[in-house]
């Protein structure tokens, strides 16, 4: 028996609550982990509130991330005492996740906790920071350099956006942060943003092509914001799309792609293969300013996870939220 958040759906009634969970709830897996820290992402908020069909089976422990210590393993790569991190792989959706004291998963889903980070710091990064790094890698591999011009980051006050701003600024890029919370402009500048624009500039229907401005874009919003970002990206620039906070639709034209040679990269963090994950975490260990990470991180306990999950969807949460699971 252990403590955790459990989502149930009985006779159409959807509930997420902290409770004592029987070990029998855990699915099959060859590695058992004592979870020390987890986190809340946008997808976790959707799962906890039931506002989107994220959870595919019940009962379910939410939490698409965790960091902790292996307690039992029949997988050749892991032994008791190993420190590990997990991001994605359907955990918290189809396989019980990290918002509980115990997780049982497949060994190939785990990566070693980087020596540069504590378990808490790894969860302050979490899937949001790992996804942000995947976006930065896509722009780099496209050949975009700091001298090429401004990089737009949309949804900049969110988890992915905040880390993307900090990463890009440390790497020398000129970052323009787009946010629906202009009162947070000073916070975004402290992360490294050179300037801040309001979400409304991008969030309404725009022209198929606009004035060229962005050398590259990290988009966490989707919908009109993504369409307008593509329409205003410079010739042969690139856009890394990783989120849908503004909607799943993409009301755009082919004009940016066939007239300006703009490239749209889809960033998937859930099923990314191990070498990609290892590269992203290695770069995070090298390029992420831990002090700036601390400035965008709020700590809560398991008992607060359901409430804060709802607040996250309402846009009331800045940056990253880490959940202390152990103790």
Lay out the secondary structure.
Layout (H helix, E strand, L loop, with lengths): L1 E9 L2 E9 L9 E10 L1 H8 L15 E9 L9 E5 L14 E4 L5 E2 L6 H24 L7 E4 L5 H12 L3 E6 L5 H7 L3 E4 L1 H4 L10 E6 L3 H9 L1 E9 L13 H5 L3 E4 L7 H14 L2 H6 L1 E5 L3 H9 L6 E5 L3
Parallel strand pairs: 8-9, 8-11, 9-10, 11-12, 12-13, 14-15
Antiparallel strand pairs: 1-2, 3-4, 3-6, 3-15, 4-5, 5-7
Helix pairs in contact: 1-10, 2-3, 2-8
Structural description of this entry:
The protein is an alpha/beta fold. It is built from 10 helices and 15 strands. Strands 3, 4, 5, 6, 7, 14 and 15 form a 7-stranded mixed β-sheet that branches. The chain has a 6-stranded parallel β-sheet with strand order 10-9-8-11-12-13, with helices on both faces. Helix 1 (about 40-50) crosses helix 10 (about 305-315) and helix 2 crosses helix 8.
């Amino acid at each position: 028996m252990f403590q955790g958040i459990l989502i149930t759906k009985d006779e159409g009634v959807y509930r997420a609550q902290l409770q004592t969970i029987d070990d029998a709830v855990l699915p099959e897996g060859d590695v058992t982990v004592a979870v020390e820290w987890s986190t809340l992402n946008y997808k976790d908020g959707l799962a906890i509130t039931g506002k989107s069909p994220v959870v595919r089976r019940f009962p379910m422990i939410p939490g698409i991330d965790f960091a902790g210590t292996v307690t039992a393993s029949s997988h050749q790569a892991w032994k008791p005492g190993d420190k590990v991190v997990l991001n994605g792989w359907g955990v918290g959706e189809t396989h019980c996740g990290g918002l509980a004291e115990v997780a049982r998963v497949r060994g190939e889903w785990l990566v070693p906790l980087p020596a540069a980070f504590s378990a808490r710091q790894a969860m302050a990064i979490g899937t949001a920071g790992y996804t942000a790094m995947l976006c930065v890698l896509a722009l780099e591999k496209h050949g975009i350099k700091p001298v090429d011009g401004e990089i737009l980051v949309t949804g900049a006050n969110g988890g992915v956006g905040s880390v993307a701003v900090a990463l890009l600024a440390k790497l020398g890029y000129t970052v323009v942060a787009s946010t629906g919370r202009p009162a947070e402009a000073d916070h975004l500048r402290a992360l490294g943003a050179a300037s801040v624009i309001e979400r409304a500039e991008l969030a309404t229907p725009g022209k198929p092509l606009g004035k060229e401005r962005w050398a590259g874009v990290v988009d966490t919003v989707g919908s009109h914001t993504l369409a307008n970002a593509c329409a205003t990206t410079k010739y042969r620039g690139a856009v890394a799309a990783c989120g849908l906070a503004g909607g799943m639709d993409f009301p755009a034209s082919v004009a940016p792609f066939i007239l300006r040679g703009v490239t749209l990269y889809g960033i998937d963090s859930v099923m990314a293969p191990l070498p990609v994950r290892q590269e992203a975490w290695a770069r995070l260990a090298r390029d992420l300013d831990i002090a700036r990470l601390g400035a965008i991180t709020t700590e809560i306990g398991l008992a607060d996870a359901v409430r804060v999950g709802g607040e996250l969807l309402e846009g009331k949460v800045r940056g990253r939220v880490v959940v202390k699971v152990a103790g």
